[in-house]
Amino acid sequence: MSAHSEIIIEAGKSERHYWRDVWRYRELFYFLAWRDILVRYKQTSIGIAWALIRPLFTIAVFTLIFGRLARLPSDGAPYSLLVLAGMIPWQFFASAINEASLGLANKENIITKIYFPRIIVPISGVIFNIVELAVGLAMLAALLAWQHIPLTLNLLFLPPILLLTLMLTFGWAIWVSALSVRFRDFRQVVPFALQMGLYLSPIAYSASIVPEAWRAYYALNPFTGIIDGMRWSIFATSAPPPTQELAISLGIAVLVTASGIAYFRSIEKRFAELL
User: Fold this and answer.
1) What is the residue range of 190's domain?
2) Calpha distance 8→178 (Å, rounded)
3) For residue 165, which of 15, 26, 89, 221 is within the disulfide window of CB 3.0 to 4.6 Å?
4) Residue 221 and residue 194: Cα distance in Å, rounded?
5) Residue 92: helix, strand or coil by DSSP?
């Protein structure tokens, strides 16, 4: 009698092995990210130089309006570099969130036809925007050297702050991608919310201008701690690190990421019918 292989179908097996499947499909992260890079830059006349032009244009406008006309304080740092240090994490975040709001809809053709963990799509969008983050950091390093600004041991804290930015961006990208599928009108809300966040975050100004009585409430914007931490680590300063603001930012990042994953997983099976 011939032997037959035995197939056992277990209920809930895919749920238990979800994160193992994410690892098995890890090459899809790179494929989707690389395809998005080609789509964004291949057909443009100046290519990846757009990653330099956008922050430089914003810096020029902010420096003219807030630095020259409004004469906002820069805490001893060159005003243009103060703005750039705030723009780098914010531009990375804003680009990734914009990508997340459209990512699942733009990949409807593969989502409705084949299986893979859908959470790969928003995460690959974040990975794709790491290219612009790297370009921004390289530009900042060049300008720091050009203006002969000394570096201190504070710079050792920059990688953890960037990891915090990455975690916060992952969390919000997962939330936004799920909500954009569940509620189609939410895609219209994202650009407006990002525009408001640009001015509510201490990018064009130092958080030191916020009255002391409002500092704790202002720190509930997680980019307050991230941007203050970036500036503290980059510029030579004897001021204490913004530990309270960074702790609040870390707490919000953990909460947003954990809740975003939970919500995403709760409606993931409905994506094909919702798209």
Assistant:
1) 21-274
2) 32
3) 89
4) 13
5) helix
**How many whole angstroms separate alpha carbon 132 and alpha carbon 120?**
20
**Has residue 8 been placed in a domain?**
no
Number of folded domains that form the chain: 1
Q: Cα separation of 259 and 256, whole Å?
A: 5
| Cβ neighbours of 65 (radius 10 Å) | 12
The candidate with the shortest Cα–Cα distance to 119, out of 193, 32, 198, is 32
Two tokens, residue 3: 């032997």
Do the domain assignments include residue 1?
no
Percentage of the chain beyond pLDDT 90 is 30
Q: Which of 94-108, 135-149, 226-240 has the highest mean pLDDT?
A: 135-149
95: helix, strand or coil: helix
Please tell me the distance from the alpha carbon of residue 111 to that of residue 98, in angstroms, as a whole number: 19
pTM here is 0.84
Give residue for tokens 């994160």.
19
Residue 261 domain flag = yes
| pLDDT mean across residues, the chain | 82
20: CB partners within 8 A, 6+ apart: none
Q: How many residues does the chain have?
A: 275
In a domain, 2, yes or no: no
DSSP 101-158: HHHHHHTHHHHTTS---TTHHHHHHHHHHHHHHHHHHHHHHHHHHHTTPPP-GGGGGH
Neighbours of 133 (CB within 10 A): 22
